[in-house]
Amino acid sequence: MSWGEICSSQEFRGRWVALDAVRYDEVTSRPTEGCVVDADDDLGELCTRVRISDRHGCAILFCDEDSSRNSKPSRRARISSN
Fold first, then answer.
1. Per-residue confidence of the chain (82 residues) as pLDDT tens digits?
2. Using alpha carbons only, how large is the chain's radius of gyration in Å?
3. In terms of C-beta density within 10 A (0-12 exposed, 13-18 middle, 19 or more buried), how is residue 25 classed?
4. Which distant-in-sequence residues (6+ apart) come within 8 Å of 21 by Cβ?
5. Domain ranges of the chain
């Protein structure tokens, strides 16, 4: 899915979204597309599930109404594999 489609979706807007195979715009560093693995309102819960699932290559991004239109990168979370 494109990042714009993800952020336009009622299911993901206003939530943290775990994405696999994320592609970023080279100029703005904004996500352009990815495969949604999981989503949650609670970042800690999402990180725990992603860590347990052993998906270490996921990006976790906050999906808000301005994420797909904004020139700034959206907030990101990193999951430590330790």
1. 999 999 999 999 999 999 999 999 999 998 999 999 999 999 999 999 999 998 878 999 999 866 555 444 445 555 555 5
2. 12
3. exposed
4. 34, 35
5. 3-77
Name all contacts of 73-80 with Cβ < 8 Å and 24+ positions apart. 73/28, 73/29, 73/30, 73/31, 74/30, 74/31, 77/16, 77/43, 77/47, 79/47, 79/50, 79/51
Please report which helix (H) or strand (E) contains residue 16, including its range.
strand 15-24
pTM of the model: 0.76
Q: What does 17-79 look like in DSSP terms, one character per residue?
A: EEEEEEEE-TTT--EEEEEEEEEES-HHHHHHHHHHTT-TT-EEEEE-TTTTT-SSPPPEE--
